[in-house]
Design a protein that fits this description.
Layout: E1 11-16, E2 35-38, H1 45-58, H2 69-77, E3 82-88, H3 94-99, E4 109-111, E5 113-119, E6 125-133, H4 140-152, E7 156-162, H5 167-171, E8 177-182, E9 193-199, H6 203-210, E10 225-230, H7 234-245, E11 249-260, E12 263-271
Parallel strand pairs: 1-2, 6-7
Antiparallel strand pairs: 1-3, 3-4, 5-6, 7-9, 8-9, 8-11, 10-12, 11-12
Helix pairs in contact: 4-6
Bound molecules: coenzyme A.
Coenzyme A binds next to strand 6, helix 4 and helix 5.
Length: 272
């Protein structure tokens, strides 16, 4: 959806359990103070439902990668915090209100983006497992991810995405994405997926991205051979797999992913 004029009304939110707020970075200069939503509060129930419907819409519903409500509570809200942007109802395009199933009598904020990342066994490392935006092509997902990583105090991030997913363009803005697992043996879309890890920019740089002042963090390009391939080129996947199996390392680097006439192009560095 293409509604650039709404940018001034994007309002940041953080959704978590009340006790978690004291563990989050809340002193962030974002232009607007993030609205704190406690999952304990009955008044936030409809917001949470709309947020989950938005996630379902973005990820192909419950039969694909839409997040079940219990996962949203158990894995995103309780051990961590969901963060993103929302709009006052009066600024939400009618079409989006319909897509999100917003009731006529709901007059609260409507979430338009979200990022979830939960803490891992390595302190400072977060596993990012959901990013969506309903107003695409205006930096909303990029700003959302930056804001959420800043709130969580993340130093490093691990995640899974697909070679055909335009979100690679968003993730690669935060750092060179090292491929840790090529085509993980278990995933809803195992054949298309890869597990990546990146070093998160420091907080000042993250906040510049979160405010929309810059699009990229200071991405350091690893040493090695530059290479690009189409996402469905099996020979290329074979080469990548062999390189990794032989102890080599591989990173996606900016621009990371581009739609071309022949398919989606992936930009990498192969190194040691
Ligand atoms: C992928 C997604 C998060 C991007 O959201 P967004 O708000 O458009 O992201 P941004 O505006 O920050 O986009 C960053 C870049 O990606 C580009 N981009 C985003 N969606 C694109 C698409 N469908 N096709 C081509 N480019 C796209 C933007 O144009 C921008 O690049 P540019 O500035 O060089 O033009 C959003 O489309 C979405 O919610 N998708 C469904 C859920 C999903 O797959 N999430 C990713 C899980 S890993």
């Amino acid at each position: 959806m293409n509604y650039p004029q709404l940018k001034d009304h994007w309002t940041p939110y953080i959704l978590t359990m009340g006790d978690n707020y004291k563990r989050l970075n809340l002193d962030l200069d974002l232009g607007k103070a993030p609205v704190q939503l406690r999952v304990e509060d009955e008044e936030n129930a409809e917001f949470c439902s709309i947020l989950n419907r938005g996630n379902q819409l973005a990820f192909g519903g419950p039969k694909d990668m839409g997040m079940p409500l219990w996962v949203m509570l158990d894995c995103a809200i309780l051990p961590s915090a969901m963060a993103g942007f929302m709009l006052p109802r009066e600024y939400v395009p009618t079409e989006l209100l319909q897509d999100l199933g917003v009731d006529d009598d709901y007059d609260g904020y409507v979430p338009i983006s979200e990022y979830c990342a939960c803490p891992t066994l390595e302190p400072g490392t977060f596993s990012g497992f959901s990013l969506h935006s309903h107003i695409t092509g205006h930096g909303l997902a990029t700003r959302t991810k930056a804001f959420a990583l800043a709130v969580l105090g993340a130093k490093r991030q691990i995640g899974v995405t697909q070679f055909d997913n335009p979100a690679i363009r968003v993730h690669v803005r935060f750092g060179a994405m090292e491929i840790k697992i090529h085509r993980p043996i278990i995933h809803t879309h195992s054949e298309d997926s890869f597990v990546y890890q990146l070093d998160v920019p420091e907080i000042g740089e993250l906040m510049k991205i979160a405010r929309g002042e810059v699009e990229f963090g200071p991405v350091e390009i690893p040493k090695g051979q530059r290479w690009s391939f189409l996402h469905d080129d099996e020979l290329a996947h074979g080469r990548l797999r062999e390189h990794l199996a032989n102890g080599g390392r591989a990173w996606l680097i900016p621009p990371g992913w581009r739609a071309t006439e022949r398919g989606f192009k992936i930009y990498m560095v192969l190194g040691e």
